[in-house]
Each structure stands twice: as C-alpha cells, then as structure tokens.
Amino acid sequence: MAILNSHLTPRSSRERVARRILSSRDTSALLSATDVTPMPSSDEALGRPAVSDGLYDGFSQVDRLPEELYREYDVKRGLRNADGSGVLVGLTKISNVHGYNKVDGAVVPDEGDLVIRGYHLDDLVSQTHGAGRFGYEEIAYLLISGRLPNAAELADFNARIDSRRELPTGYLSLFPRTTESSSIMNVLARSTLLLYAFDENPDDTGAQHEVDVALSLLARLPRIAAIAHEASVSARDGEKLLVPPVRQGYSMAETVLDVLHGAEGFTREEAMMLDVMLMLHAEHGGGNNSTFTCRVLSSSGTDAYSCYAAAMGSLKGPKHGGANAKVGAMIEDVASHVSRWDDEDELASYLERVAAGEAFDHTGLVYGMGHAVYTKSDPRARLVKRYARKLAATKGCEDKLALIEGIERLSPDIVRAARGTSKPICANIDLYTGFVYSMLGIPADLYTPIFAMARLAGWTAHRMEELYGSGRIIRPAYNSVIEPHEYEPLERR
Predict the structure, then answer these.
(1) Which of 161, 177, 191, 196 could form a Cys-Cys staple with 305, CB 3.0–4.6 A?
(2) In this structure, which CATH number among 3.40.50.2000, 3.90.950.20, 3.20.20.100, 1.10.230.10 belongs to the domain 323-439?
(3) Which residues in the chain are classed under CATH 1.10.230.10?
(4) Residues forming a β-bridge with 241
(5) Domain 113-317+445-470: which CATH number of 3.30.470.20, 1.10.580.10, 1.10.3720.10, 3.90.550.10
(6) How big is the CA angle at 227 (ends 281 and 459), to the nearest 5 degrees?
(7) Residue 179 neighbours by CB under 8 Å, 6+ apart
C-alpha cells in the first residue's frame, strides 16, 4: 500500500480501528484463494492439431463481411452515422453530452459541454467545492432523484448510504475466494452478482428497491474493490488478507482513500481532488458503451445486479473505461524516451513515432486523444487540469503535469498528419486520470474500478429511465446476408 506523508484531516484523525485480519480460520475460502484451473484449450493433451484449425480459425472466413455490403445496406456500424455522430436511438432527461452542432446535416465542431439534469458540470463542481464541501453525493442524488437535494435531503441520503456500508453476513465467507484476479473490474462484477444472493427479493424492480440497491452499491463498492486489491497483494507477497473496517460519516472520496490508506491517512485536499474525479465520471450520457449496456439489459426487465455487473464488464474494455490504464502506460513510455520533457521538438519527434506505429505499443494510437462526441474540447479534461495543478504543486509533480500538457498540445497536429484528416482532435479525460490517481497513491488496478463506483449513479438514473419510461425491449435489426446451404450428412462432409 502506498504511504502518504501527509497530515490527517479532522475526520481522518479520529481514533482508528485496527484492521481485522481475516485468516483461514475465519473462512476456508482463503485456503483455495490461489486455485487456478487452466482453460482446457491449453491442455497439452489436446493441443492444436490440424483438425482443430476449422474450429479456431474458421471465423476468419465465415464471420468477416465485405466492406461493400455495409455500404450497400447503409449499416450504421457501431451505431454511428457516416460523419461519426451517434445514431439516435432514444430520448433522455438525464444529461446532454455536447461536442458539435448539426448545421444543414453537417457536423460543425464546438466546445464541449456536459449538462446533468439541466446543470452544467462546471457549475456543479465549482459551486460545491467553492463552498468547501464534497460534491459527488449531490450529483448522485441529482441523477437518481432528478433534482438537487436540500440540506435535510442530502443528510438523509448520506445516512442511507452509511447504513449500508457493512457487507452482508456470510458474504466474506464466499467473496475472498473470488478476489485473486488479474482484473479488479472482473472481481467487481462478480462481487456485484454475488450480492444478488444476499437480497431477499433481488428481482424486485420497484422504484424503492431499485434505489436501495443503488445506495447499497454506492456504500459497498469501495470496500469490495479495496478487499479485492488487498487480496491480490496478499497472495503475491504471501501475507494475510487485511479487511478494512467500516467508517461512518465519510464521503465517497474519503471512503475510497480511507480503505486504501488506512492509518496512513489522507489530506482533505487529496479527498477533495478525488471527489472532483468522481463528479467528472458520474455521468456521460446514454450512448456511451457501459450506460447503453445498462439500458439494454434494463429494457429486458432483468434485475439490477445483473444489469450493473454487465455495465462493469463493458467499462472494463480498453476502448472504454480501461483506456486510462493505456494512457498511463503511454505517458510513462514517453517520459522514459524523451530526455528533456520541456523540449517540444524532442517530444513531438517521439509522439510522431507513436502515431506512426513505430513506438510504444505499435498501434499508431496516441491514447487520451480524441473522443466520439467531443471535438474542440472535453469539459472534464478542462476541469481536471484546473483542480490538479494545486495538488501537483503540493506533490512536486509539476514537471509531469507539464509533460502531459505538452502531449495534449502537440498531439492533435501529429495525429491529423498521421491519419490524413483535418478533423479536430482534443484531449479526453483519460489523458489526466492516471496522473491524478497516482498523485493520490491509488494503485493502477483500481483506476477503472473507481470509474465504476462513480458511474454507478449515472447507470442507476439510466436504468430507471429505461425501466419506467421507455417500456420496450431494445431490439435493433441486423440484415442477414447469409447464403443458403443444403444439409449434408456427416459421412459426406
């Protein structure tokens, strides 16, 4: 666990409860925490003889369709129009992700804006933090209820989350066995599905139960993610698993830092910075992949746990929430290959190699640059830079921040030249996410899980809008281009 040399906030300076050691005497599941069963295909007894080529490689001939067919049938691949804009599939009163205008049918780039329930994200962040209070809980209440809370409603909301922080009785006898994994996001999805078994009426889709499930996940996910991380560390180092105690009266940001750092503590400035990140990740429209996944499953009438677990599976993907890990790796690669970070010519030269597929992961992608909706700017990236500068000065990380800003400044022209396009390209929030989390002492395997914790509020809002508003199962069409065949008996094939 990272050690922060900092003073504790008044809250975090309270008498701390020692972390309880969960041993095999508490649960036999820990005895099998390292059980790994190889996939059968890796079994030497089966191998890859020639006869299996059709099984493993057949899709390359069967499932790939000629490009001209997509044009012939006017298929909106990725639910995108030819100009890159999204296909209109629904209406929402939750948020608006604005990055361009449509003028006479053409996309006209514009400065990015994110509006949540009618409020600009910039205002929500600046107003709460300007008043010296945490803002994520207010955004969560706004998303779920449709309006900003007054003081009494906010206090009640926080109390309801606090009352649900304890994990269900018997949960830890099952959960630790699932914690050792190469992906905490996978663990988070499995642990969410496991909570279904501890719900007396898990298939209840009534509004009260839906809200209660959302509040319980907001309360529990920080501890679940921390336990999963600690289980991986403990297994690697051969140490006992430490289970963080429940702390009452903390915001989401404070809870995350508390379960990660324990007695090492955290500063209020650190907690407020994380709160900003949670606010920026809380909601981003109905068309992003994980939220749309949430809406698709919700339209079927399935339970909340299945829905949120599926959304987590989507968010895990490197083209979505998992992109922040790629960005972090790329920045470290750039930092190691550019001797002088303030030399723009040297920096640009290396970024050109990255964009050409000659450096880093050889994909030609400059991670953290470009967005499906935002064109001129990502409002979340603007905000995170504003709030990260002060923390960077405190942590002695100003040079690293300047390097990232240099990547942001130089990359658009480099990427456009490499792709032969004139379209505007802006930095997205992922370019700065890993940098901020590293300053907060958050392990890299928890970057995307924290994204999921924050986005749960948005997923909840979209799930409820789909459950109670649309009323129709989502069922888009696929045109069949399959060729007819006559069945041949096995002996004649």
Answers:
(1) 196
(2) 1.10.230.10
(3) 323-439
(4) 22
(5) 1.10.580.10
(6) 30
(7) 33, 187, 227, 228, 231, 232
Q: What is the pLDDT of residues 222-276, one digit of tens each?
A: 988 888 888 888 877 888 777 778 888 999 999 999 988 877 889 999 999 999 9
Joined tokens for residue 255 = 């809870």
Question: Is 249 in contact with 194 (CB distance < 8 Å)?
Answer: no
Amino acid at site 355: A
Distance CA 108, CA 93 (A): 24
Q: Which two tokens stand for residue 116?
A: 């949540």
Give residue-wise pLDDT tens across range 122-171. 999 999 999 999 999 999 999 999 999 999 999 999 999 999 999 998 88
Beta bridge partners of 252: none
- Average pLDDT (202-227) is 94
Answer for the pair 154, 137: CB distance below 8 angstroms, yes or no.
yes
Closest to 327 in 3D by CA, of 367, 269, 284:
367
Query: What residue spans in the chain does CATH classification 1.10.580.10 cover?
Result: 113-317+445-470
Q: How many CA atoms are closer than 13 Å to the CA of 91, on its beta-carbon side?
A: 4
Residue with tokens 């209820």: 145
Q: Provide the greatest CA pair distance for the chain.
A: 79
Task: Output the pTM of the full model.
Answer: 0.88
- Specify which residues 120 forms β-bridges with: 115
Predicted pLDDT at 407: 97
Position 54 scores a pLDDT of: 83
Coil, strand or helix at 113: strand
* Average pLDDT along the chain: 88
